[in-house]
Amino acid sequence: MQLDNRKKEVLHAIVDDYVSTNEPVGSKSLIERHSFNVSSATLRNDMAELEHLGLIEKPHTSAGRIPSDKGYREYVNSLMTIEELTPREQLEIEKRINTSVDEVTELIKNATHTLSETTGFVSLAMSPRLKKSFLKQLKILMIEPGKALVVMVLSAGVVKDKVVRIPNFLNDEQIMKISGAIEKSLTGKPLDEITLVTVETAGKSTDVPEPLLKQVLYEAYAAIKQADELNIYLEGEHRMLSLPDFSSLGRARDLLGTLSDSGMVAGYVNEMENAARELGSDDSYMIRIGQEITLEGLDDCSFITATYNLTDSVSGNIGVIGPKRMLYSKVISQIDFVKKKLNEEMKKFT
Amino acid sequence: MQLDNRKKEVLHAIVDDYVSTNEPVGSKSLIERHSFNVSSATLRNDMAELEHLGLIEKPHTSAGRIPSDKGYREYVNSLMTIEELTPREQLEIEKRINTSVDEVTELIKNATHTLSETTGFVSLAMSPRLKKSFLKQLKILMIEPGKALVVMVLSAGVVKDKVVRIPNFLNDEQIMKISGAIEKSLTGKPLDEITLVTVETAGKSTDVPEPLLKQVLYEAYAAIKQADELNIYLEGEHRMLSLPDFSSLGRARDLLGTLSDSGMVAGYVNEMENAARELGSDDSYMIRIGQEITLEGLDDCSFITATYNLTDSVSGNIGVIGPKRMLYSKVISQIDFVKKKLNEEMKKFT
DNA sequence: GTTGGCACTCGGGAGGATAGAGTGCTAATC
DNA sequence: GATTAGCACTCTATCCTCCCGAGTGCCAAC
Fold first, then answer.
1. Which residues of B fall within a CB distance of 8 Å from A234?
2. Contacts by A241-247 with C-beta closer than 8 Å and gap 24+?
3. What are the tens digits of pLDDT across the range A280-304?
4. Hey, are the CB atoms on A241 and B259 less than 8 Å from each other?
5. pLDDT tens for each residue of A210-224
6. Spatial contact of B133 and B156, defined as CB atoms under 8 Å apart
7. Average pLDDT of the residues in B119-146
8. Which pLDDT score, from 0 to 100, does residue B1 have?
9. What is the per-residue burial (b if ≥16 Cβ within 10 Å, else e) of B111-129?
10. Lowest-pLDDT range, A15-24, A80-89, A168-177, A315-324?
11. Residues B221-247, buried b or exposed e (16+ Cβ, 10 A)?
12. What is the C-alpha to C-alpha distance for residues A262 and B339, in angstroms, rounded to an integer?
């Protein structure tokens, strides 16, 4: 994108003004608010050029200009400068996140809540991707005849469990043997290297009769697989209704309708993450603007996520869905700071 | 409420018509749609009377009438007849609920989902009130130095657990002793009869040194108390945006804002439940209409809940929040049927 | 108690005028 | 070649006004 300095400034100014006023910005008001040392006619020429490049657009002939998706993209990539949060804002966030909790899940929920409150938008977090974490313990507890609880302690300091059905006849001792055998042979293995075959092999060393054994092993395997399933936490959907950007009921409905399908959103976040990895992007955050987002109803939104780390190999995402017309520099630094604090707190768990 | 038969019919017809058309209903359209053997002038007199009694009201002078909260109340209490669901509708619900799950929580979430889908409104469920269930097992598993998992199996077929911090020096054996002692002495006790003192007494029989012991006992106690905390599952908030009743963005925002505070909603449901118990109400459902609901922003809503039973003494609520202007007889029978199926499924867990 | 008739009320939609912000273009100027 | 002043034009948003129609309350008659 070849833009001379003034055109960059003009685009910058248009984005800033539009974000703060929610009104299409015209050449005259641009002159009034900013100190361009040229006349409005000159800016009109520049604006015509920017429009030609697809960076800004007119809602209709006699209105001012608003940034297009491409315009926001240019702004985000090259024009804006991210400013640090004030100490006061930092303190506010720290205070909310530093409430002591016993489980990582709680910590993540806290962070999500904080992010929604501080940005005023929808926030979301993915649970850690545990595929790369490994088993530290696996216990099977009999609950009652035919039912047991598989408890797994993972290297990332996470505890998972699942109630499973087991054959009625099995006694405590047999279960102990099986769980001992599994634990012994799978401890230290990353979850994504554990297959049904691995588990079955692990169980062979016991003297529990074949068909009973097999069912328990299968259930243990299922429990392990379930342990690395991803969860998503979404919060603050209702805040979107307060934004002028979604004052049209139709848009608001589409947006919330899509967000209500949390599985779909989770899938999308994953896809973003994977895409970023493939590109080898080393940005500390990912951002999608407007039509770049392939989820229905999010055309007027931007989607910003960052990656938190529970351990070196176990990470997840946390981020925000807000209107395209947002204060990017601010929101990005908010997310970044929350991520930073989250990472710090997570160290305590591992 | 003294109403002659025709006035009852008029009120009934007004509610029906208003529910189905969302337009204030006038005397003339009433005659057209229903076979009253009187003239519109007569109905006008009746309607004036009904208005005088506070059962219906006019949005403005020259509009038809709409039911007031009191009118809906009368309708719900005395006028409507609840019809059974068609076999087809029943099948639809059964199909959704009968997906096999291993935990009660999943079952409840399923039911909530089903209810939101079938009614098209917001559905909610409270987790079972476990105060009256009793401990069947309590195990403490060492996770790593300083951290343990308290696992509780409750009589209602529910498994709860909590990660707790424990003194670093404690070894497996000591923990086993403590958990064995607690289990031995508390098994069979309803959760609401377990106090910190009970737990501490239970722990006395071990030879673990005092200050360490005390901390573990406290954490075990905290885990037990956490086990009977109530959760609420809310679903389908976005559906409200499709209703003409909430086409005003302001109302929609207030509504969703309130619903986003799930703790508050949970508190309110509890309050409803308690009030119903005190009154010794034996209805199979509870209903609050419009202003009867003390939650902010729900003036245009009705709140219907039913009580499901996990065991004789362990119950919870499931229900719907929809517009006042709803097909009560239908929605009530939907809730009732979901509740029935839920109860049936729950038997499998206890 | 019921009915037909009638004057009255009020919201909502259609139509029309107007203001105002903004544009593109042209011709003159730096 | 870039910049500027000037101007005609465009389009929306807003405000009025008008009018229709559904609905009402009331009265006199049945």
1. none
2. A241/B249, A241/B252, A241/B253, A241/B256, A241/B257, A242/A120, A242/B253, A243/A323, A244/A22, A245/A22, A245/A300, A245/A323, A245/A324, A245/A325, A246/A300, A246/A323, A247/B249
3. 887 889 999 999 999 999 999 999 9
4. no
5. 888 999 999 999 999
6. yes
7. 95
8. 61
9. bbbbbbbbbbbbbbbbbbb
10. A168-177
11. bbbbbebbebebbbbbbbbbbebebbe
12. 25
pLDDT on residue B3:
84
Terminal-residue alpha carbon distance, chain A: 45
Check: CB of residue A237 under 8 Å from CB of residue A221. no
Put simply, whether A260 touches B (Cβ < 8 Å) is: yes
| Dist. CA A82–CA B217, nearest whole Å | 50
* Closest-CA residue of chain A to B149: A159
Rounded CA gap, A185 and A193, in Å? 13
Chain C, protein-covered positions (CB within 7 A): 2-5, 8-11, 20-26
Which chain A residue's Cα is nearest to B257?
Answer: A238
- Strand D bases near protein CB (under 7 Å) are 3-6, 9-12, 21-27
Render pLDDT for A123-169 as a digit per residue (tens, 0 to 9).
Answer: 999 999 999 999 999 999 999 888 999 999 999 889 999 999 999 98
Phi, psi of A180 (to 5 degrees): -60, -45
Q: In A, which residues are within 8 Å of B215 by CB distance? A: none
Tell me how far apart the alpha carbons of residues A321 and A287 are, in angstroms, rounded to a whole number.
10
The whole model's pTM is what?
0.93
Give CA–CA dist B205/B181, Å, rounded: 7
Q: Which two tokens stand for residue B332?
A: 């009530």
Nearest-CA neighbor of B253 among A78, A90, A240? A240
**Cβ proximity of B72 and B291 under 8 Å:** no
Of A141, A247, A252, the CB nearest to B151: A141
B48 touches strand C (CB under 7 A): no
